[in-house]
Design brief:
With 315 residues, the chain is of the alpha+beta class. It starts with a strand and ends in a 7-residue tail after the last helix.
Length: 315
């Protein structure tokens, strides 16, 4: 459960930072940069995220299981703390103070109880042009950090789905969808909301549309998007989503939990439960995914036949 993040200083005179990480997108270039900007006081415009380049990433198992922020972000936090610790030693040497008297505050190294301070940019410049440098320190501000979590970070949430079912045709329409997620500390609400909405589209597609269909000879009949029914915009309502940050994770430094699977896990159960609730007065107690119009129509008719002839199932 380790994800390697290498962090170093780039464009030293401008106080820039570069992060090299194994990632496949999902907004990580934004959220990783936000973590570093918060920790190091460096503007987002001066942080570069290098993603998914196997030519420069020494090691990385990638992103899965909603681990990118909880694990990768924590590794970034740890790397940033290493950078700050080394920066304190350099700043102490430059300002002729004891290392214990150096405080990291608002993006600068400050001698406690005085107005003497050095910015991150100034320390980074000296680190890469070490004419006046601590004798036991190697030049540069380049750090590697591993983070191996003590436990999994469990997120949770609640989904509510409202559906309309046409009993004549079996057609199902999603009238509304509401979801509240506890994902711990939220780094970027817009990125999290996008992940939730994308997951909901996946989960709703699984519940209502998507299916691998094979012929009698074993030939896959739904092998292209002409036949495999992915949800489209008119299949989905605009979900109402909220985030609950009241219970941060207790065993990673960010307090973050995962959000990537939220919609995909909750939506199938919520959608199918809503459909069964709507069909309950008609005697339908179970239905198989994907809940297509044809399956709903069949279920309604079977239930009607059972009601008309209760002894039929016993024959």
């Amino acid at each position: 459960m380790e994800l390697l993040v290498v962090m170093g200083v780039l464009a030293v005179l401008a106080g820039g930072v570069v992060v090299i990480t194994a990632s496949q997108g999902q907004g990580h270039a934004t959220t990783f940069a936000q973590i570093l900007s918060d920790r190091l006081g460096v503007p987002l415009s001066r942080i570069e995220i290098v993603e998914g380049d196997t030519g420069v990433v020494p090691f990385g198992t990638g992103t899965f299981g909603s681990r990118s922020i909880a694990v990768g972000g924590s590794a970034l936090d740890r790397a940033a703390q290493k950078i700050i610790a080394k920066g304190k030693r350099i700043a102490a040497h430059l300002m002729e103070a004891a290392e214990r008297d150096i405080e990291w505050r608002d993006g600068a190294f400050v001698v406690v109880g005085t107005a003497r301070r050095l910015s991150f940019e100034e320390v980074a410049r000296v680190a890469h042009a070490p004419h006046n440098y601590p004798p036991d320190e190697e030049p540069g501000l380049h750090e590697t950090a591993f983070y191996d979590p003590k436990n999994f970070a469990y997120s949770n949430g609640a989904h509510l789905c409202e559906v309309d079912v046409d009993p004549e045709t079996g057609a199902v329409r999603l009238a509304g969808y509401w979801v509240v997620d506890d994902v711990g500390t939220v780094i970027n609400p817009r990125v999290v909301e996008g992940q939730v909405h994308g997951g909901l589209a996946q989960g709703i597609g699984q519940a209502l549309l998507e299916s691998c269909v094979y012929g009698e000879t074993g030939q896959l009949l739904s092998g292209s998007f002409m036949d495999y029914a992915l949800p489209r915009a008119d299949d989905l309502p605009m979900p109402m989503s909220e985030l609950d940050e009241s219970q941060p994770c207790t065993h990673n430094p960010l307090g973050a939990k995962g959000c990537g699977e939220s919609g995909a896990i909750g939506a199938p159960a919520a959608v199918v439960s809503a459909i069964l609730d709507a069909l309950a007065p008609l005697g339908v107690t179970d239905i198989e995914m994907p809940v297509t119009s044809h399956r709903v129509w069949q279920a309604i008719n079977r239930a009607a036949q059972r009601a008309a002839n209760p002894c039929a199932d016993r024959l």
